[in-house]
Predict the structure.
Amino acid sequence: MIRLHHLNQSRSLRILWLLEELGQPYEVVSYQRDAKTHLAPDRLKQVHPLGKSPVIELDGQVIAESGAITELLIERFAPERLRPAPDSAAYADYLSWIHFAESSLMLPLLLDMFTQKMGANDNETLNRYIAAEKHKVLSYLDDAVTDKLYIVNNQLSGADIMLSFDLIMLAKDKALEQYPNVKQYALQLAKLDSYQRTMRLEANYDDSRSQ
Ligand SMILES: N[C@@H](CCC(=O)N[C@@H](CS)C(=O)NCC(=O)O)C(=O)O
């Protein structure tokens, strides 16, 4: 049995969606962000020293990092369906987009979020860097998803599932308007049954929505 340690409003949504898509039995241990600090509760550190989510337990092993979890679960449970064949050219694209979601794209999104939250957005050099970097990576993504439902081979893969959390962050920030292909791509992913089930599950796990 796979166990997911799921924090509300977090990258763990990627893994919740993947698990819904895989159809393997799994259980969720739910955690809530602190209302003020937005950090995870300390008890998550008892599961993994970083105290972050997602973390899964699989065959007695504790595994962190959404990208690693995505690759691992797909290799194990859906290699034919949710990734291209390793000997195909598309496999390199698949890996690149998985890692793009948590590195090149995530960095400017996080910098932007934290500078705004901390009221540190009066640093012109930093602001220029964030705006230029965000535009660079989003233009790149916008080109890549032109006229596509899915980013690799136009078939659902772990790369779409990894990107989905970035898309949620971008939508919250109303940043998709300038990137019509990314917006269209995000809207298409959000129509999938497994995605919609995931959002309903998240709504149940997220106590902040009922307050
Ligand atoms: N690179 C990691 C990042 C994990 C991460 O930072 N998770 C955030 C939620 S999106 C978290 O647990 N934050 C709470 C905290 O750090 O206390 C991944 O992709 O899984």
Q: What stands out?
A: The radius of gyration is 17 Å.
